[in-house]
Write a structure and sequence with these properties.
Blueprint lengths: L4 H5 L10 H9 L7 E5 L5 H6 L5 E6 L2 H13 L5 E5 L16 E7 L7 H10 E8 L7 H10 L8 H14 L19 H10 L1
Parallel strand pairs: 1-2, 1-4, 2-3, 4-5
Helix pairs in contact: 5-7
Length: about 200
């Protein structure tokens, strides 16, 4: 992810009006000036920065040091003084880590591989005081990647998403959460050169 940090940092800053996840978050929660937020796998930091005007504080964690660097620069650019980004591997953190031990009103992981096993999701539930959000692709197709996987005999990664979501639903239900699902159909047009594709896919 370090080599993609600059690409992520250049993506447009979302707003609550044009980003379905942010819009749902504001409609569902009682977000306000006393709300604390944890953004797991924060990437370029856009979601935390977009939430800055609505919350007391937001903490973004990412396994990529370069992502954290660019996200911190973006926070300064947008005067998001109540947003902080820290270089951390969620999978390696304990629930009593000083950064997260006091919990957060809202905890979310949006389109990130940081939540890759049950223990990662359970840790999210442990520190979520009020709300927990996880966004994953149900069906995400990339003809180029899928052709490469087929050539190498690898099962497409999106095939596991259904099981991940069903398992997360079950875990949340057992812990007393009231799980809800929201869907969005999206198409990304990402046109890159052959050289850029070779550089991108050799890291994936």
């Amino acid at each position: 992810w370090n080599h993609r940090a600059e690409e992520f940092s250049k993506r447009p800053m979302p707003t609550v009006n044009d980003h379905l996840f942010l819009k749902n978050l504001l409609e569902i929660t009682d977000i306000g000036p006393d709300t604390t937020v944890l953004d797991i796998g924060s990437g370029g930091g856009h979601l935390s920065i977009a939430l800055a005007p609505y919350v007391k504080s937001a903490l973004g964690l990412d396994v990529s040091g370069n992502m954290v660097k660019h996200a911190s620069e973006s926070a300064k650019e947008y005067n998001a003084d109540n947003v902080r980004f820290v270089h951390k591997d969620w999978g390696a953190m304990a629930s009593d880590d000083p950064l997260i031990e006091n919990g957060f009103d809202i905890v979310f992981a949006h389109m990130t591989p940081a939540i890759g096993k049950a223990a990662d999701f359970i840790k999210m539930m442990d520190i979520a005081k009020k709300y927990l959000f996880m966004t994953k692709p149900v069906r995400r197709h990339n003809p180029t990647e899928e052709g490469m996987w087929k050539h190498m005999g690898i099962e497409p990664l999106f095939m596991s998403s259904d099981k991940d979501l069903a398992f997360a639903f079950m875990l949340g239900w057992q812990r007393g959460f009231n799980p809800q699902f929201f869907y969005e159909d999206r198409i990304w047009d990402n046109i890159i050169t052959v050289d850029e594709a070779l550089e991108k896919y050799k890291h994936e």
